[in-house]
Amino acid sequence: MNVFILMLLGIVGFALAGLAVFGWALKSGQFEDPKGAAARILDESDRPR
Amino acid sequence: MTAVVSACPSGLSAPSTPTPAQDPSAFVVQKDGVKSLDLIVKGPSCGGCLSKIESNVGKLAGVRIARLNLSTGRLRVEWSGQLKPRTIVEMVASLGYGVTAFDPGKADIESARAERRLITALTFAGVGTAAVMFMSEPLWFGSDLTADIRNTLRWISAAVALPVVIVSGQPFFSSALASIRARHLNMDVPISLAVILALALSLYETVVGGQHAFFDASVMLLFFLLIGRVLDARLRRRAYAAANELASFQTATATRLTSGGRAEAVRVVDIRPGDVLLVAAGERLAVNAEIVSGKSEADLRLVTGEVLPVATTAGQTLHAGAVNLSAPIQVRALSAANDSLMADIARLLEAGEQKKSAYRRLADKAAELYIPQVHATAALGFVAWLMFGATAAQAAYVAVTVLIITCPCALALAAPLVQVVAASRLFREGIYLSSGDALERLAAIDHVVLDKTGTLTLGDPVLGAISEEARTARNQAAMLARASHHPFSRALVKAVGAGPIAQNIREIPGQGVVGTINGRHAKFGSASFLGATASGGSELWFAFEGDTPVAFHFDDAIRPDAAKTVIELSAMGIEVELLSGDGEERVARAAKAAGVRKWRALASPQSKAAHVKALETSGQKVLMVGDGLNDAGALASAHASIAPGGAVDVSRLASDCVFSGDSLRAIAQIITTARAARARMRENFAFAALYNIVVIPVALAGWVTPLIAAIAMSASSAVVTLNALRIAAPSRSRWAGLP
Predict the structure, then answer these.
(1) How many angstroms away from the CA of A31 is the closest CA of chain B?
(2) Could you report the predicted ipTM of this complex, rounded to two decimals?
(3) Is B451 a catalytic residue?
(4) Closest-CA distance of chain A to residue B125, Å
(5) According to the CATH classification, is domain B438-459+559-674 in 3.40.50.2300?
(6) Which of A15, A22, B31, B648 is the most exposed, having the fewest neighbouring CB atoms within 10 Å of its CB?
């Protein structure tokens, strides 16, 4: 029974972690310019700022 | 010897009289010593463009950040120091891209924020649904679960579902509350009710250790509905932005003269009544204004629909949208840009109000049918079970399951999903819808009224056929025409192509151009200017001093597939009519070329609107297509309306739909898609009704379990979604059999 509760809490924990990562990605503007991101990956001079 | 007027080396584009209107300095935002500017860049499509633009702009002195968003075509530049904003614009233009300053208006920022809120709500609902589903599966199928485990699963589900519903349900709850306050029920009322009741019932069952809990149903309902909402919001924002960009390539700034006589660039929205503005040749007027000084000609095509330019003198009033042609003039603004626009729009909305309130959307009709019937059934079920000896809790359970399983989901998705799919299909073709219910109105159209100038025609005149002998004269006339802004001159130059320019050129407003070619004095202009007899009016004359003048005729070029479109519309059972403010002869010629049998010339803006209203009163559903200020009233009074991308602001805003590109075929395409969309919507509503007829008895009998609810809800949503997606598939071409 204890193991069972631990597992469920784990599931919920993972879900929350995923949610947090998505929220961070959204907030840091990673969905603002998908086309540009695809093009920049091939541009050597484009360094992360 | 040099020409008085400078021209671009090819002579193809209009002479480059300095147009300070392109100065973007009015759009610069300054903050903590850092200046920033947002530009729309037309044309970049790949990584090469991106790095070319960013590195070249980045090299300019003082630039800190130059970042191009390839998805939206917006370039943000931040710099400090003395760099002139104009240098940035010139740099981008010299790389071969169209560029214009842009003002991210309040509405834009607001809609981006609303979309972000919806995405957050969707994310919560998605993760919540996944988590609750994990725990629901053993509850659905695990008949051998111990009571302990079952209760644990329920409590954890409750802990997940409760915050998710509170966060993700917000858009629905607030909309439902607003609609109740306005005493007009919309679809969000039953949705909110179903979600809240499902959650409350489940909590109660969990506390008392009862049979069934519907946590999964409540979060899944929100998840499905939010997908539809997010798609809808995103598409509407993109369409709005795209239509706005078409406009921002028109007048963006104006030149104001300060009291000291200095010229400064100001944003159009900053113009105040009484400001004195300098209007260069070729510049479009942004506000209603009175001419202070300067003799010139004005192109009023967008204001009255008339092709021939009119002479202007001091004291005359010009309406916003007029283009100044031959010489720079000074004008005094009579109104602020927003005031005149707002006033125009307010007047239009008043005119169109009856139309808007008389129209009831399909979804509203469905909600009005659905809400009382389903809620009455649920109440009846509650009473009936009590009468047959059930406990209050049992009776309430039955009533709530009726509300959950009749699933406003399929009904609520039925119309919006179809609209999203249809609008995104049109979006790909360069057609931007202003609202979802425009599709329903466009589908009902049986009569199309076309404006001529700028709608049926491209708005730019072209040189008519000329005789063999006139060819030399034409080439010589082009040497004079290359230095003029007059639309007929531009048309002549377009026909001849690049070439040399005459010397000692002088433009005489309202008359023509004079200059010297090979040492001989030459004139190019109106009939009276050259002493010839006018015939019709849409012609210019050319002669060397002492010679007989040669005439050049100009036509307003019809859009390339206008005739095909008229045939196609007739085949769809739609009557086509031409209504123009231009002269009789030109309208007749255009009507004949496009194959339109019914036409009327010299129509005033009032008579245009009155004509459309009369057609509406006689029971016809009129689609107005127009671009000018003179069409705005008719656009607002019509059942539905479309404007080409080059239309004036008022007309664009009064229209349901804006199309870019030269092809008139967009009209047929819009109506075809709208009709397909209406058919899909009706099918979806019919399906949702059928579904409810089947599930209500099941719920009333008390047989609904969480498993049945989950399957029924997702299956019905899937059916309406798939049906909506049928619009996205390209239809068979109607063009195959046409000449």
Answers:
(1) 10
(2) 0.76
(3) yes
(4) 10
(5) no
(6) B31
